[in-house]
Amino acid sequence: MIITTTNTIDGKTISEYSGIVFGEVITGINMFKDIGAGLRNVFGGRSKGYEDELMSARAEALEEMASRAEQLGADAIIGMKMDYEVLGSDNGMLMVTCSGTAVITN
């Protein structure tokens, strides 16, 4: 499935708009990743644990959105937008959401 942030797809003609589709993932960051991130906050450097968690959540949100588009009979998603938030009383949850317009192309 083609997923793009643009409103057109090169070489394709949009024949039908099937509706807006969403993908949402909320995931917890475990204690060990928090400890590693805390140390990197003090000493500097990148947090591989958080980066891996973010990449995984992003991939899951895109897969969920694509699955919902397929259920509508669409073969592409245009105008995709992705957003990230931290949730929870201790900011221990990561929410990744994406949305776009499911379309059928020729």
Automatic annotation (TrEMBL):
Cross-referenced InterPro entries: UPF0145_dom_sf, UPF0145_YbjQ-like
Protein family (similarity comment) = Belongs to the UPF0145 family.
Source superkingdom: Bacteria
PANTHER family membership: UPF0145 PROTEIN YBJQ (PTHR34068)
Alphabetical list of NCBIfam families matching this protein = PRK01119.1
Q: Which organism is it from?
A: Vagococcus acidifermentans
State the protein's name: UPF0145 protein CBF27_10220
